[in-house]
Write a structure and sequence with these properties.
The protein is 30% helix and 46% strand. It is α+β, with helices and mostly antiparallel strands. It is elongated and about 90 Å long.
């Protein structure tokens, strides 16, 4: 005859196994970003200019400079600028825009890509230590907090209207 303790253990084991199986079924992973990538021929990331590639990139550089972007990388057919924003005292954002200018049958095409990086202020307490060789060392916590910006996210800007505004400015300078 089975003991009541063994029956109880078996019942608990079955309940635990059933709940694990159920939680595994309910836990679905979010789709990966590349799975929704469409590669559409209609894109907001390009602008056609009648100028050659180097002249088109020069206009793109002037557009970025006119809006307060700092140019941090410049080549004959590409330019990258960045601008920092402080939406709240404990947050900061960096917007980096890369323009690549390539020859086309119409003159040049400017491809734009923007990357937004988000930072948050994090506090970190510190402690100080005193060491005396004959006595050993003592570490004391001080009420000193060091604030530092920590990167919390980064994403490519895909908003059509953002690129439309950028290319409208480039178009006004391209005339």
């Amino acid at each position: 005859m089975k003991s009541p303790l063994i029956s109880l253990c078996r019942s608990l084991s079955l309940v635990a196994l059933a709940s694990l199986s159920l939680s595994a079924c309910l836990a679905t992973k979010a789709p990966r970003s590349y799975q929704s990538e469409a590669f559409s021929s209609e894109t907001p990331f390009q602008y056609y200019s009648s100028r050659d590639a180097e002249a088109a990139c020069e206009i793109g550089k002037r557009a970025l400079l006119s809006q307060g972007y700092q140019i941090d990388e410049e080549k004959p057919q590409s330019v990258r600028g960045e601008k920092f924003f402080r939406p709240r005292p404990d947050e900061a954002n960096r917007l980096s825009i890369t323009l690549v200018c390539l020859p086309s049958s119409l003159g040049a095409v400017i491809y734009a890509s923007a990357l937004e990086t988000q930072y948050e202020m994090k506090s970190k307490g510190s402690s100080a230590g005193v060491s005396v060789s004959a006595l050993g060392s003592v570490s004391l916590p001080w009420a000193i907090d060091k604030d530092t910006l920590v990167k919390v996210g980064e994403e490519t800007v895909i908003a059509h209207d953002f690129y439309q505004r950028l290319f409208d400015l480039i178009k006004s300078l391209d005339s």
